[in-house]
Amino acid sequence: MKKIILSIALLSAMSVSAKDIRTLVVDTQPRMHCENCERKIKGSMRFEKGVKRVDTDLKTKQVTITYDADKTTPEQLVKGMQKIGYKATPVKKEEKK
């Protein structure tokens, strides 16, 4: 009986941990050009549902968002960028991690 319960618990834990983590890379308009822009984007986007990580690159002026695809979509992330005054345009196809 203990083995059955342990097996069920293990299978449940495995199914819960199998998340669909993806990455979206976007350009911004207006262009991100300073550290204040980076702070604004990182500080706001981290509160969007499903966002796991936000990385910015001032050289390429791109934002890389790692998110849980079970909780949000690229369209919702773009809307999140619009809330803070940036038009986000995807530059790469989504990548699964």
Helices and strands in order, then pairings?
Elements: H1 2-17, E1 21-29, H2 35-45, E2 51-57, E3 62-68, H3 74-83, E4 87-90, E5 95-96
Antiparallel strand pairs: 1-3, 1-4, 1-5, 2-3
Structure overview:
The chain is an alpha+beta fold and 97 residues long. It is built from 3 helices and 5 strands; from the N terminus they run αβαββαββ. Strands 1, 2, 3, 4 and 5 form a 5-stranded antiparallel sheet that branches. A hairpin with a 4-residue loop joins strand 2 (51-57) and strand 3. 20% of the residues are buried.
Rounded mean pLDDT score: 87
- Quickly give the structural class: alpha+beta
**SS strand fraction:** 25-35%
Percentage of residues assigned to helices: 25-40%
Q: Which outline best applies? A: elongated
- Outline the low-pLDDT stretches: none
Q: How is the main sheet built?
A: 5 strands, antiparallel
End-to-end CA span: 37 Å
Summarize the model shown.
The protein has 97 residues and is an alpha+beta fold. It has helices spanning 2-17, 35-45, 74-83, and strands at residues 21-29, 51-57, 62-68, 87-90, 95-96.
Descriptive terms for the model:
5-stranded antiparallel β-sheet; elongated; 97 residues; alpha+beta; 30% strand
